[in-house]
């Protein structure tokens, strides 16, 4: 007798009420039960379940089998089908911190939605940068014979390909490798920097500062290149004195305020939204209004920051959702893989920090 049954009987003795019957857990419907219900052999059910269209099975027999499957609620053994086909309907996603990063978690959302569109489910492993856990996660996915693996980092950077990953069909997401043939999808940082600067140019600004990051990264180089391109396209000479560097957080943006004011630029593009948030504080301390005195543009479109600053911050969005979706499409061969990383467009989001609001 189980401990649950013993506990129920003891309770019944204490209360004088009959013990409740512990419900039996339903067992999975078997292939044999479907065959008996349809009046056919298990081999016939197997052919129908596996959609063997070339099998010589009468249409009436197929109908009886499918009716029995539906009535009984039979679920095919996915692992058995995987052993036969050599692959599964799973796509793996191994990430170093995407699942715990609010805005970067959109990578998972995009990959999951795109996988479902094509009949696949996503297996997700969040490793928090633990190398041993990463190796185990990839090994597990290989054992499940996943269709392929997306390998993602929470910020755009160059990465080393883990050796077990080479045993699978894989695509790097939000990261890249210089190894020949390594497929990757990354944000178009150059286009993003260009679009951010164009938001300010569109409002007539000609003297535009750029507060870049101090930390080496593809985003640092790409956004600067985009800034220079936008100025060049507008016929404005590049002035290196208008480019400053600061630590890419709120405090870094705040500390950059004095340097910006010394340069006398009425418009500024910040490397990210957190720096722009710090700059807002610094400008206000100097009695300056945004955008009346200084127009400000950020980068990332972190909703918890950009949309809730006063005035709301114009910015450029990192396309995390589309990165995840594009990674699945490249993996499945729906999107062709270019010679280098596929670059995903970073859309501009214009808000009130670049334009003076009309008064009612």
What's the arrangement of secondary structure elements?
Blueprint: H1 3-15, H2 31-38, H3 42-49, H4 59-72, H5 78-85, E1 90-95, H6 106-117, E2 121-126, H7 131-143, E3 149-158, E4 170-176, E5 184-187, H8 189-201, E6 208-213, H9 218-233, E7 243-246, H10 250-255, H11 257-263, E8 267-270, H12 273-285, E9 295-297, H13 303-306, E10 315-316, H14 320-331, E11 342-344, E12 348-349
InterPro entries: HTH_LacI, LacI/GalR-like_sensor, Lambda_DNA-bd_dom_sf, Peripla_BP_I
Keywords: DNA-binding, Repressor, Transcription, Transcription regulation
Pfam families: LacI, Peripla_BP_3
Brief synopsis:
The chain is an alpha/beta fold.
Write a structural description:
There is one protein chain. It is elongated, with a radius of gyration of 29 Å. Mean pLDDT is 87; it is low at 1-13. It has 360 residues and is of the alpha/beta class. It is built from 14 helices and twelve strands. The termini are far apart. It has a six-stranded parallel sheet, sandwiched between helices. It has a four-stranded parallel sheet with strand order 7-6-8-9, sandwiched between helices. Helix 12 links the parallel strand 8 and strand 9. The chain has helices spanning 3-15, 31-38, 42-49, 59-72, 78-85, 106-117, 131-143, 189-201, 218-233, 250-255, 257-263, 273-285, 303-306, 320-331, and strands spanning 90-95, 121-126, 149-158, 170-176, 184-187, 208-213, 243-246, 267-270, 295-297, 315-316, 342-344, 348-349. The protein folds into three domains: 3-76, lambda repressor-like DNA-binding domains (434 Repressor (Amino-terminal Domain)); 87-187 and 321-344, Rossmann fold (3-Layer(aba) Sandwich), CATH 3.40.50; 189-318 and 347-354, Response regulator (Rossmann fold), CATH 3.40.50. Keywords: DNA-binding, Repressor, Transcription, Transcription regulation. Residues 29-85 form the HTH lacI-type domain. Residues 11-26 have a biased composition (Basic and acidic residues). Residues 1-26 are annotated as: Disordered. Pfam families: LacI (PF00356), Peripla_BP_3 (PF13377).
